[in-house]
Amino acid sequence: MKYIRLGGLEVSRIGLGAMSMSHAYTGAGTDDAESVRTIHRALDLGVTLIDTAEMYGPFTNEELVGRALKGRRDGVVVATKFGFMSHTGRASGVDSSPANIRIAVEGSLKRLGTDYIDLCYQHRVDPDTPIEDTVGTMAELVAEGKVRHIGLSEAGVATIRRAHAVHPVAALQSEYSLWTRDPEAETLPLLRELGIGFVPYSPLGHGFLTGQIRSTDGFVDTDWRKNNPRFTGENFQRNLHLADEVRSVAEEAGATPAQVALAWLLAQGDDIAPIPGTKRVERVEENIAADGIVLSVEQIEKLDNLPAAAGGHHDEAGMRLLGR
Ligand SMILES: NC(=O)c1ccc[n+]([C@@H]2O[C@H](COP(=O)([O-])OP(=O)(O)OC[C@H]3O[C@@H](n4cnc5c(N)ncnc54)[C@H](OP(=O)(O)O)[C@@H]3O)[C@@H](O)[C@H]2O)c1
């Protein structure tokens, strides 16, 4: 496994997203023992970055990660997020007020069974709290030793600049993959100018780019993808050819489609650490092996030129929370 820097923080360049173990996708919470084995296998294979959030479950995903890391905390970069749940009574749930951050972080520390969070992200920008106040509170938590590095998620470029002026931001976590190219235009250049790392979430397109999802019939009602425009109606059918294109490059490269989707992201720069999510040992092994896949210039070009996906990458309410 190769290691890179997100700002001042060293991480394995492939991390593990723990969300689907407890939240949002079909099968979440059904086999915690396998999820714990998956985290352990990732650590054994050199992964250091484990990603969770207060809102996954809610709460149960942090508890699961905490259980898995018992006795194995050293050397692990534990990343979690606040700000998508309000403990101060805001109906929207989006709350990065100083009071809410403090309550959220105390809860995360307890559930994770640790006395510090390596990388603490604001989950979504809060339009009702100036980013300076949010980052000011995060900086206080750093000074108190409860947080080591700070991050933002899906923040817009102006907000990133303002935040970084208050306290160095180690990483931005936003959606980036073969079918979500939005960060390339403005965000990545700014991050590079400021020396901030990038953590692509949903790097496998919520599993779609692996080519294993040919129908959504098996999704349970609580599966977020049921309301995702790319997974619904005609869009889903139209998007299937994207997965087929990824598969054809994979066959040529002697890799799996998931590995190609990850190798393409890794080829974008050594300041990028994707966090593919899985709750299965077999798949975490497959995804981590993407670290050894080198795509040819022609293969990267073919992937670069894939047509745009049909449908937005979140539903309308979700889209309104991005890029603020
Ligand atoms: N900051 C944010 O707002 C935000 C939003 C979404 C996600 N995230 C973070 O990003 C992480 C990853 O994103 P994600 O889970 O949404 O999407 P993803 O990594 O693109 O895809 C995960 C899905 O792909 C499946 N999968 C994983 N590896 C596979 C393989 N090799 N072959 C076939 N299927 C495979 C998983 O199923 P199984 O689990 O059944 O293997 C799961 O359903 C999350 O865990 C979370 O930590 C952050």
Account of the 3D structure:
This is Aldo/keto reductase. The protein is of the alpha/beta class and 324 residues long. Helix 1 (32-44) links the parallel strand 3 and strand 4. The protein has helices at 32-44, 60-69, 98-112, 131-143, 157-166, 187-194, 233-253, 257-266, 281-288, 297-304, 316-320; strands at 3-6, 9-12, 16-17, 49-51, 77-82, 117-122, 147-153, 169-175, 197-201. The longest helix has 21 residues, at 233-253. Strands 3-4-5-6-7-8-9 form a seven-stranded parallel beta sheet, covered by helices on one side. A two-stranded antiparallel sheet has the order 1-2. The structure holds NADP nicotinamide-adenine-dinucleotide phosphate.
Number of strands: 9
Radius of gyration: 18 Å
Q: What structural class do you assign from the helix and strand content?
A: alpha/beta
Strand content: 5-15%
Could you describe the largest sheet, including whether it forms a barrel? 7 strands, parallel
Give the mean pLDDT.
Answer: 97
Query: Which ligands does the model contain, each kind named once?
Result: NADP nicotinamide-adenine-dinucleotide phosphate
Outline: globular
Helix content: 25-40%
Summarize this, please?
The chain is of the alpha/beta class.
Please give the structural blueprint.
Elements: E1 3-6, E2 9-12, E3 16-17, H1 32-44, E4 49-51, H2 60-69, E5 77-82, H3 98-112, E6 117-122, H4 131-143, E7 147-153, H5 157-166, E8 169-175, H6 187-194, E9 197-201, H7 233-253, H8 257-266, H9 281-288, H10 297-304, H11 316-320
Bound molecules: NADP nicotinamide-adenine-dinucleotide phosphate.
